[in-house]
Amino acid sequence: MLKYWRIWLLIIVVFGAILAVGLKAYPYGRNAVEVVYFSDDSPVRGVLEQGMFITAVNGNPVRNIEDWNSFTMGLKGQVTLTANGKDYEFYVNESLGIDVVDIERTNLNFGLDLRGGTRIVLKPKENATKDMIDQVISTMQTRANIYGLREMNFYPIRGATGEYYVQVEVAGIKRDIVKDLLSTEGKFEAKISKAVVVSDGEGSMQLGSESFPVEVLDNETIRINNTVIQPNQTFVLKGIELEYLNKTQNKLIFMGLVYEGKDIELVYSDPQHSGIMPITGGYRFYFVVLVSIEGAQRFADVTSGVPSFLDLQSGERYLESQIYLYLDDELVSQLRISADLGGKVYQSPQVTGSRIEMEDAVDEKLRLQTILRSGALPTGLETESVDIISPALGTEFFGSTIYAAILAVIAIVVIVFVRYKNFRIAIPMVFISLSEVIIILGIAAIQDSMIWLVVLIINFLIISMAWWKKHEIDIYAWVGALLIPLLGMASWTIDLPAIGGIIAAIGTGIDHQIIIADETLAGKKEEEKLYTLKKKIKMAFFIIFGAAATTIAAMIPLMSIGIGFVRGFAITTIVGVLVGILITRPAYARIVEMATKSD
């Protein structure tokens, strides 16, 4: 039986792909809808969470989004929702304010055009030019890529009166991510408090090696370096932006801007410079950023001359000043400064924060790192509208694809049978083409690493036994037995371009199978055969590998471009070609060889 080891490899890989696509856990049952968004005035906000599964409304089972719409239309008063296996009661005045989608039945990550998703229109807070909108989209795309979000499309649109908007389309993603991450302006500032001691209405502010005289004119108004300053007024001294906050009994309190977003040169994410640690009542996150030498010099100037104190609990000395980190004018971190850093050029401040849940701490850390890496948007954005996109195109496309596939199968069987007069050649072509589709989808599936690990182990055992039993060596099939399961541990979005890549791979596969059949059967009825059967198959594979190498070489530049439409097509095509030349073509060649010998 091991002499058919190539066919066994194909069967194992196909079976693994089927499990990778269809073996899905349903912790709360197959009948449910998934929560994707809450409106700001939703009565469930703060109680339910995005990603929860609702299985019943007032005791009525919810099987899909149609049931949900039916049960919640015009719903008011006391409402009971069953979410993640628990009952929650709410009082509804106008509407629940919940958007839901049908739960996924497979492990495939479908794109916006097939599954549907969310469309959000963002409005600039100020008049924006086309160039500014393009910059906004570029920054948001960078954030989406860094954050590892799934398919996301950005478009500039223009209103009837000429104003520009940004339209965001996302598939299967929480809409709050767009609101809290992508549309966040991202203005980063680090400020250090600085106190100036005054005696008899006079004092001195030290910035680096320079000192500037300070004079109190009345109760709160001051004069510094011959400039009159009012409380909460900002001014520039030695190239540093300072804000005069208030006056205490014998001190003037200032806040100096030392770092801005443009000073961020690197955001560390490695374990040595970032992490999560448990603390009392929650989890603390931290990460280090590398700032410019100009920002570090401002840090040294502002912290110069600041007195220190001894912390009795830790035994460490700290400056009396603290550093405050702001994102979009909101305080995100407040840190003490080691006394050793006073007056020194410091380029690696640490950003910290805490959350009650570990998952929230991880998300907040990643959000801050993403925003700091991408830089600030040129303008603030606010949500203009939010709506759900229907997957009507995907439904129609799937229907058309099924009809086209049936017609293609009939056409292939008829044409190949007319050409070779042999169903044992024609029928396997259909099976091989179907197998390639299943394997490609299995490789693209998510949450399937354990399945492909098992396939890898079984494949390794099969080729090891075949080698031990001294069966013929096929280095390409050996590579495929190990490489394809490893590729299966990756995943990508199945959208219309990806389906186009699958179709392209199938077309290429049919061509290759016809080449194998032609080379194998050519001259079969001649009394004198110039080539053995194995030599003919080798000739066929020489042609096939040449064509496959050309296809892969053409797709690699498209894949590296990174544009969503082109990239999805290129990845799927390359994977399809690899599946063909490493798994299905060797198996088909063995099937044809068996069919030929039996004639």
Q: What's this entry about, in short?
A:
With 599 residues, the chain is an alpha+beta fold.
Explained architecture:
- By secondary structure, the protein is α+β, with helices and mostly antiparallel strands.
- It is built from 14 helices and 25 strands.
- It has four domains: 2-23 and 392-598, Multidrug efflux transporter AcrB transmembrane fold (Up-down Bundle); 33-102, PDZ domain (Pdz3 Domain, Roll), CATH 2.30.42; 117-185 and 379-389, Alpha-Beta Plaits, CATH 3.30.70.3400; 194-319 and 335-364, no CATH class.
- The longest helix has 35 residues, at 564-598.
What structural class do helix, strand and pairing data support?
alpha+beta
Helix proportion: 40-55%
- Residue stretches low in confidence (pLDDT < 50, at least 5 long) are 523-531
Report the C-alpha radius of gyration, rounded: 33 Å
- Note the main sheet: 11 strands, antiparallel
CATH topology of the largest domain: Multidrug efflux transporter AcrB transmembrane fold
Number of domains: 4
What is the distance, rounded to the nearest whole angstrom, between the alpha carbons of the first and last residues? 21 Å
CATH class of the largest domain: Mainly Alpha
**Oligomerization state:** single chain
Report mean pLDDT, rounded to a whole number.
80
Strand content: 25-35%
How many β-strand stretches? 25
* CATH-derived architecture of the largest domain: Up-down Bundle
**What gross morphology would you assign?**
elongated
Query: Total helix count?
Result: 14
